[in-house]
Design a protein that fits this description.
about 325 residues; alpha+beta; Aminopeptidase; 2 domains; two-stranded antiparallel sheet
């Protein structure tokens, strides 16, 4: 990230200026001035934004409720790439608007109208905005989708996201075949373990080997993952399934993106263990961990290929008991 200094600009909300204003923090990814009225997902927090490399400058928009003296919505936008190009996020699974549950459709539309008018003055006319899955916050997702479409956005990409609800027992959602695989792993003496962070380089080599074996795309550089672990040690976790010899049969990186949502990032399992399908046992361990953390959801990510859905992966997640929701990327 460049060494820029944050500068503030205050913009009124048309028709609502007596109560609301938009604070623009330009340059460095500075935090809100007024206290937040909502929890910001990890990927939208300034400390995480600051780790996104290749950004020319940041425009962080905060919607302030003057009556309540609270920040009720935010939208971080990164200028990167072509001179007219902007992203939210630039390097993260999702960005977009994060907001308090009581923000109305009218106020949200006015906020986004001001945001995009300001971006236009900066020459940032080509904007890509990737939102969180609808399952995270269905009401906010619906309002954001409507507002963005009204402002001339189109849906550039539509993905199917899967998540495990944690209010029910893990086995209750399993298809019969996956339940049999779970029992097979248990009979074979496989165990789930939470691994220490210092094993990340070994975990990285394990994932790379699994991806090469299956012809998948390479990972982020190890240094980027180490940077995330160093800055957010309480948010990143390694979990494994080990066989009776202590060897890894499966391994996964999990990120706690909020107080009540876990997100699965990188995972892998060698073909040699395919007959056991140890990822079923691994997800049972994650389910238990998530419940102990007080989480309501385990986000299993999307099932996307360059030309559409990865049907086998989506079906596997469904067989684990996962529920589907949309994850949209908007562009204009």
């Amino acid at each position: 990230m460049s060494d820029f200094v944050s500068q503030d600009l205050l913009l009124p909300l048309p028709g609502l200026a007596g109560r609301y204003q938009v604070r623009v923090r330009a340059g460095a990814p500075g935090g809100p001035v007024l206290p937040l009225a909502f929890d910001v997902y990890l990927f939208g927090q300034p400390a995480h934004l600051a780790l996104q490399h290749g950004v020319k400058s940041w425009q962080l928009f905060y919607l302030e409720d003057q009556r309540r003296q609270r920040t009720i919505a935010q939208l971080p936008v990164a200028a990167a790439g072509a001179p007219d190009q902007a992203y939210s996020p630039y390097q993260a699974p999702f960005g977009g608007v994060h907001m308090a549950p009581d923000v109305s459709a009218r106020v949200l539309l006015a906020f986004l109208t001001v945001v995009h008018a300001h971006l236009a003055t900066l020459g940032l006319d080509n904007i890509q905005l990737k939102s969180f899955p609808f399952a995270y916050d269905p009401a906010a997702s619906a309002l954001q989708t409507q507002a963005l479409l009204q402002l001339g956005y189109h849906i550039g990409k539509s993905e199917v996201s899967s998540h495990l609800p944690l209010h029910r027992e893990f086995a209750a959602g399993l298809y019969h075949a996956e339940l049999l695989r779970l029992r097979k792993c248990e009979r074979a003496g496989f165990v789930v373990e939470q691994e220490p962070p210092w094993l990340l380089p070994a975990a990285y080599d394990f994932w790379e080997s699994c991806r090469q074996e299956k012809g998948h795309a390479p990972l982020l550089p190890l240094e980027r993952l180490q940077e995330l672990f160093a800055h957010f040690p309480a948010r990143h976790f390694l979990f494994s399934v080990r066989d009776t010899a202590g060897q890894w049969a499966a391994l996964i990186l999990v990120i706690q993106v909020s107080t009540d949502i876990l997100y699965t990032f990188y995972s892998g399992s060698p073909r040699a263990y395919a007959a056991y399908s140890p990822t079923v046992l691994l997800h049972q361990g994650l389910h238990e961990f998530g419940r102990n953390q007080g989480c309501r959801m385990l986000d299993l990510g999307t099932a996307s290929l360059a030309d559409g859905l990865n049907f086998p992966l989506l079906q596997f997640k469904q067989h684990l008991g996962a529920e589907a929701s949309l994850k949209l990327t908007f562009a204009r």
